[in-house]
Each structure stands twice: as C-alpha cells, then as structure tokens.
Amino acid sequence: MQKKINFKDEYVCIITGLVANCVLTIIKFFAGIFGHSQAMIADAINSLFDVLTSVITYLGIKMGKKPEDEEHPYGHENIEVIVSWIVSIIVLLTGLFIGYSAFHTIIDKNYSHPSFIALWAAIITIIIKEILHRYTLKIGNILNSPAIKANAFDHRSDVLASTSALIGIAGARMGWLFLDPVASLVISVFIIRTGVNIMKQSNRIIMDAVPSEDFVREIKEFILRYSEIKEFSNLRVHPIGRNYIIDVSISVKKDYTVSKGHEIANNLREALIKEKTFLKDVIIHVEPYLKD
Ligand SMILES: [Zn+2]
Ligand SMILES: [Zn+2]
C-alpha cells in the first residue's frame, strides 16, 4: 500500500516548496522568453535562487537533527540559524537585483511589450506562493524552526516579486510602459525589508536575545510556585536552534543537606522541561538562603 503524504512533516513542507520552485522556474522562463517579458525573466531568475534556498533549507534541517557529539556537545541545531542567514542574503540579493534592473529600465527607456502568457505566469506564481507562505509559516511556528520560518518569509518575498512583475506586465499591456519599472522599484524595497527581517530574527538567536517577555514571565511564575525556593536570580535563556536552555540560581534553606538541595533543583528541572515545549535543559545553581 502506498504511504500517505503527511503535510505536517517538515521535510514534506520543504520538498513541496522545492518542487513548486522548480516548476515555477520552468514556467517563468518559458513565459518570459515566449511572452517577451523582461520582468518575467527576472522573476524566473528569482525562482532559480528559490530552488537553491529550498535545497539549503532541506540540508540544514537534516544536519541540524544530528545528535550531540564530542565536538558539538550542544547538538547541531544552530545550523538552522546559519540557514536563515543564507536565506536572508538570497532574499536581499533578489531585492537588490529587482531594484537594479528597474533602475536600468528607467534610465535606458528599454520597455518591453509582454504578451498574455507572461501575465498568467505571474498570477499563478502569486497564488501558489501565497499558499506556500501560509503553509510553511504554520509548520515553522509549530516546530519553532528558524530555517522553516525563514523559508516561509522567502515565499512571501516571492509573492511581492511576482506582484511587481504582474503590475509591470499588466501596465505594459495597457500602454503604461513606465508602470513596470516604478512598481519594481517600490517592491524591491519590500523584498529588501523582508531580507533584513529574516536576518534580524537569526541575529536574535545568535545574540541570545530573550525569546519573549511572556516566556520569561511564565518561567518566573513557575519557579515561584515552589515554596522551598526562597528566591532565585540570574535567570537566563539561551536559544539553541529551535530550543532553549535556561540557567538560574535558586536559594534554599541554608541547613538543607546537599541531597535535599539537589532534589529540589532536580524536581524543578524536570517539571520545567515537562511544562515548556522547546525547553531542552535547565541548569540550576543551588545557593544557601542567608536572610533568615
Ligand atoms: Zn558535530
Ligand atoms: Zn525567493
């Protein structure tokens, strides 16, 4: 019996994107060349880079799954951050490329006269890419995966790129030749912004930024539920790929035995890991409470 495709699977999600990118590249080159559309050929080159993005994401996710080894005791998940960085660079270059060619079209007054097939290619791309964006973002959020989320926003930047092509082609068909480069210039700014945002998100992980205020508040409230813990300090959250590691100091009665202190810390650690998805480990430092 044939196995059913599970669309919730992260690999299925990325491969769906890869197949779509390959098909769109072919359609766009075909439509661009036979439909005499400069904008569509530029969009085809964008799709070619998207194929590369999908392959890099796939490989990154696969490599990130490798278990810890001696050289990488924290595991390999941070490779996803490298993947999102590469994706952000590709999106940035796409934006710059579209902006640059629009600029040239204006300077050279080199307007094209595209046919209907190019218009259809743009519409098909916008629909497929918007669906892919929503689907990929959903999976990325469920798994808290930086690489998959970056991929989702790349799909969104492709929607913008094809919208620019669509406006240009439609404008040219109505005789407003200037619409193409002007639309492209505006949209290149949006694409560059998408690239910057993807990069910012990966930098947050690299810089150990606090995931969210809610996350930290919930951890604090959780620790305060333990009456044996008199106070705590130095709560720090360290993101690793999709997951987090927390370290914190807790103070317990100073005449507790080492075993008792260890037991309290261990209970807290296990409870926290159970409570919080994406929490991989909690490192707890036990101190004597000296204030009573
Ligand atoms: Zn390794
Ligand atoms: Zn793209």
Structure, explained:
It is a single chain. The chain is mainly α and 292 residues long. It folds into two domains: 10-206, Cation efflux protein transmembrane domain (Alpha-lytic protease prodomain-like, Up-down Bundle); 213-289, Cation efflux protein, cytoplasmic domain (Alpha-Beta Plaits), CATH 3.30.70. Helix content is 67%, strand content 11%. The chain contains eight helices and three strands, in the order αααααααββαβ. Strands 1-2-3 form a three-stranded mixed beta sheet, with helices on one face. Helix 3 (79-108) packs antiparallel against helix 6 and helix 5 runs antiparallel to helix 6 (179-206). The model has no long low-confidence stretch (mean pLDDT 91). The structure holds zinc ion (2 copies). The site of one zinc ion (ZN) has 7 residues, from helix 2, helix 3 and helix 5.
